[in-house]
Amino acid sequence: MPKVSICIPAYRNPEGIARLLASVREQRFSDYEVILTDDSPDGSVEAAARQAGLEKLRYFRNETRKGAAANWNRAVEQARGDYIKMMHHDDWFAGPDSLGRFAALLDDAPEAVLAFSGSWQVALGAEAKEELESQRKAAAEAGTLRTGMAFEKDLPDRFARHISAEKLTLIRADWRNLFLGNVIGAPSAVIWRRNDQLFAEELTWLVDMEFYMRLLRKAEHQNRMDTARTGALSQGGAVGSALGTFAADRPAPGFVCTGDPLVCIGISGGQLTRACSGNGALNIREYGYVYQEFSLDGAPDGKTYSGRLLEIATQYGQPYAALKPYGIGKRAYGRARREKWAADLLFFLDAAKRKLRRNGA
Predict the structure, then answer these.
(1) N or C: which end of the chain has fewer CB within 10 A?
(2) Which long-range contacts link 42-48 to residues 24+ away (Cβ below 8 Å)?
């Protein structure tokens, strides 16, 4: 059996498939298989896959269209490797050592269930330049823009990003903090140990974040069980007492990472990301789903997580009825709306003052 299964769920985009498979062919690490599940209505992706000439490629055509998450799952279900390396059809490996470095991250950390890397964000065509610059600005403000060495070169079509030290500390402290934002990144920047977990097909926008949270919850549970058994055997203590001290004394995040950009994430004008990020009803529904699934209202930082739901509701102007199913109080909703209104007012007043100063000058 191969060490790594490279899973490629495809939908149209034969050019992207050709680019991705060319980057796979360049990898120095050779203990892998490639699984391509094709959800396209035509034969363009299959033709591109066949032309790539990869002997380790296993191609599967869906008889009827499955949709994004279900197509991801079909690829994962065909995997035979110890590790799963998902690669979306817009993305590709950044260099010939990328796959080997991904595998080494898990090889060197047997307690980790997943590993992730930094990435190059690359504009695919002129229409994506505006989105790239928006992402570059956001990365700079969040402290995730990669600088130094080659990353300081003038590269107008791309930039390198990685998780910030602050966010890394946050999710190391508690995997549930991923609810505050997917700081791990796209599935193409992640590798995980093959297991029985699949992507939630009920979701559209938070599919990857919810999956990471489920993997890390399972890893935490397993680590607690292992610690409990070790404590009971070495100290003669009860399992319950070992579980009670584990979270505070021996945190086990279940992941490892590198800030180096091992993959290129292609940014195009018509991606799902742009459509979903502006959909308030979808955001509330999916964040609410995750909030309930992981019982975040009863978590140690439950107020922080409910605050995230309130932030989303006020950001998109969603009515209280959208929050009510998740146990958010009407008074808290009203207070959050007033705070948002006050913050917006201050922002516009400050902008007006700056404009007046410029005009006066």
Answers:
(1) C
(2) 42/12, 44/12, 44/14, 45/10, 45/11, 45/12, 45/13, 45/14, 45/17, 45/89, 47/14, 48/14, 48/15, 48/17, 48/18, 48/21
Helix (H) or strand (E) holding 336: helix 330-360
Contact 62, 39 (CB under 8 A): yes
Report the distance separating Cα 275 and Cα 273, nearest Å. 6
pLDDT tens-place string over residues 290-311: 999 999 999 988 899 999 999 9
- Shortest CA distance to 338 belongs to which of 299, 302, 304, 310? 310
Pairing label, strands 255-267, 92-93: antiparallel
Q: Specify the DSSP element, H or E, that contains 304.
A: helix 302-315
Q: How many CB atoms lie within 10 A of CB 96?
A: 13
Taking the C-alpha atoms of residue 332 and residue 344, their distance in angstroms, rounded to an integer, is: 18
Q: Is 349 exposed, middle or buried, given 0-12, 13-18 or 19+ CB atoms closer than 10 A?
A: exposed
Give this prediction's pTM: 0.88
